[in-house]
Amino acid sequence: MSNSYPFDLMVLPYDYSALQPSVSKTTLEFHHDKHHQTYVNNLNAALEGGSKEFRKKNLEELLSSLDKLPTEIATAVTNNGGGVFNHNFYFEALALEGSTVPTKKFEDAIVVAFGSFENFLAELKKAALAQFGSGWAWLAVDADAKLKIVRTLNQETPLKDGLKPLLTIDVWEHAYYLDYQNRRADYIDAYFKIVNWEVVSKRHAISMFSTFSNAVNLEEAQ
Known about the structure:
By secondary structure, the chain is mainly α. The chain has helices at residues 25-48, 52-55, 59-64, 71-92, 104-114, 117-130, 177-180, 184-193, 197-209, and strands at residues 135-141, 147-153, 164-170.
């Protein structure tokens, strides 16, 4: 997967049917092959017509410095670059139900921040339910290495606020409507069953000693 222009669609690290029954094969196919691909195409189109300077930047650099983008491409990069980053981040941290567990270090950090792992899940669910319309709920690390839950509208990311994201829930309706219709709460409960806690734990480990980047090989983080 390319992390700079021209961007390409990430290859899912699992089969389209692997997340059932939490996420159906049909939903995953539409979500990844149609919606995600459209964001990739539109981001490349926006950058193709812009300055070569911005085509050299990776996705995190673009999204961390949106105020420096030329006016004519800023909105397209915000919407479509965010769409690419957010979906990469979301899909990468999913796995077969019950196949992963968090590391002790990550679980301990969650307990310090939220009192218990159960409280953390409840707070993240609350944030995801409270997001009006389309958007995302995130677990992120701030500049003081503290865990916090935040929400973003549409395809905005926590990167613009200097946060290092660890986990996200997509609450755009295309992520769940074929399976759950208007029952967002049921979708969120199902989502928690398929989180890849190994990936999230490694992201947390990386955030503790380096600037987060999707380009980092998660397998090397301890």
